[in-house]
Design the sequence.
């Protein structure tokens, strides 16, 4: 057998230059009150409002991904932790901080609530935003 008959053909791939440009633009949270949730995250992360309507608010900065908040009339917050799996979180933000206690105090003053269950409070804290979405603050990031 010669080398030509044992080689597998190279897979055909679309060159990156020919592929459509796709970029990460934003994460959007469902909630009952987009303006209130945008206020919380805007103050917590020092992000300005780039769009505001009755049912949607977007925070962000030029050239960077943003955070969106969409009104859902029958919104029900996720449960965390949720041992039944019926309404548990599906995603959450990890916010990097220098000092867990200071960050927790600041976020609670803005409207967050500390979750009852804290799996590893020396490494990260689980908080719930004003709409009930869990998020973490951590010194690991």
Sequence:
């Amino acid at each position: 057998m010669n080398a030509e008959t044992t080689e597998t053909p190279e897979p055909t791939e679309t060159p990156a230059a020919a592929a459509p440009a796709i970029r990460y633009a934003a994460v959007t949270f469902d909630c009952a009150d987009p303006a209130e949730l945008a206020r919380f995250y805007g103050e917590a992360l020092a992000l300005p409002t780039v769009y505001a309507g009755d049912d949607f608010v977007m925070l962000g900065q030029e050239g960077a991904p943003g955070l969106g908040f969409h009104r859902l009339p029958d919104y029900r917050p996720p449960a965390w932790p949720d041992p039944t799996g019926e309404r548990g979180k599906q995603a959450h933000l990890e916010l990097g901080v220098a000092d867990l206690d200071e960050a927790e105090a600041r976020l609670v003053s803005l409207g967050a609530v500390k979750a009852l269950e804290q799996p590893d409070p020396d490494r990260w804290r689980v908080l719930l935003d004003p709409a009930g979405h869990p998020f973490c603050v951590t010194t690991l990031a």
